[in-house]
Amino acid sequence: xxxxxxxxxxxxxxxxxxxxxxxxxxxxxxxxxxxxxxxxxxxxxxxxxxx
Length: 51
Hints:
This protein is of the alpha+beta class and 51 residues long.
């Protein structure tokens, strides 16, 4: 499974397949926090980061 982390409309989003999931983190917060969140929610997924 591939998970893409994107910054969109002032929030971080996770894109999983064709679904875009809004996270509770603001775009001004640290990206590492969002990566750790994605690893917890989707264990074993490949995490890609895109701006």
